[in-house]
Amino acid sequence: xxxxxFYNPTHIVFGKDRLKELNKLVAKDAKVLILYGGGSxxxxxxxxxxxxxxxxxxxIEFGGIEPNPSYETLIKAVEIVKNENINFLLAxxxxxxxxGAKFVSLAxxxxxxxxxxxxxxxxxxxxxxESIPIGTxxxxxxxxxxxxxxxxxxxxxxxxxxxxxxxxxxxxxxxPTLTFTLPATQVANGIIDTFIHVVEQYVTYPVDARxxxxxxxxxxxxxxxxxxxxxxxxxxxxxxxxxxWCATMGLNGLIRGGVPQDWTTHMIGHxxxxxxxxxHAKTLAILQPSVWQIRKEKKRKKLIQYAERVWNxxxxxxxxxxxxxxxxxxxxxxxxxxxxxxxxxxxxxxGIDEIIASLEKHGRTALSETKDLTLEISREILENAK
Length: 386
Hints:
By secondary structure, the chain is of the alpha/beta class. It has 15 helices and 8 strands. A 6-stranded parallel beta sheet has the order 1-8-5-4-2-3, sandwiched between helices. Helix 4 crosses helix 5, helix 10 (264-276) packs across helix 14 and helix 11 packs antiparallel against helix 13.
């Protein structure tokens, strides 16, 4: 196991009917900016319940944060924070709203003249030493943003990562019942997003990190068990609660410390979303089986372990074992109603050329846990995903 630091200060408030605890989690004299996305938090009454439990505080609302939160939208919220002396941000929604709140939190304390420099510039991010405190109310389990310090922001046909220890939410309310009204396609996306978060940290190469491996395998097995169950029966509390917690634990740092990480699927997937507007999770479902096919030799030992421990595959032929595990993974995604080929989304050879050009533009030319995945190999992965 490699050396690592682990730090996670987020207070998790998990379970039914926990919104009332906002009253003690947010200071009485706070000036709160509530951030949210589309109309669902209004339509289903979540926003009204949140405001009811924040009575007596100065509250401003900021809605309209996109599924891939854009810099152009979020910079308007930054101006509100500055003009209204906001001192607390409350994100009500899924990963995009939470990621947006994190950008606002950091950008509001940026002293430079061009906030776009915050995007994917770790030196600028590290230079910001103050942030606006954040709380979250989760309505879509997927990204783990409710318990981590990272975010992904869209700008100029690209998706950029920001990260800072300042961006851990102070608290996150995880009430699985607030997710019951999600459309099936969004639940499927959340399952797949969580699944790929885990395998990006798990299917690499062995470093004898047994706790990490067993925990990752447990999350993956749980997702396979409850995937269709929670889509078919959205008000099955136990199934949905397990999904919510898997999504949170999949990317809160617990299984990443001391192990190599890949993130190839995410990096190429970001380009697919930025260029063609495909849902983030759907890009991951397209790419992951292909990444494993092309990188089979690099990942052989962990793919065999994945086959044996997650899918319980018994076969003396290692190649057959790996191929069957990849096939089962693809079938799992398809069984959730998510297509797994580029052609399913109308992307042809010309589209692949665009993706490769964009990877090069954004400096994504040496991907994977071993940093040897070149543009040529990315092209091979995309060709294989057709």
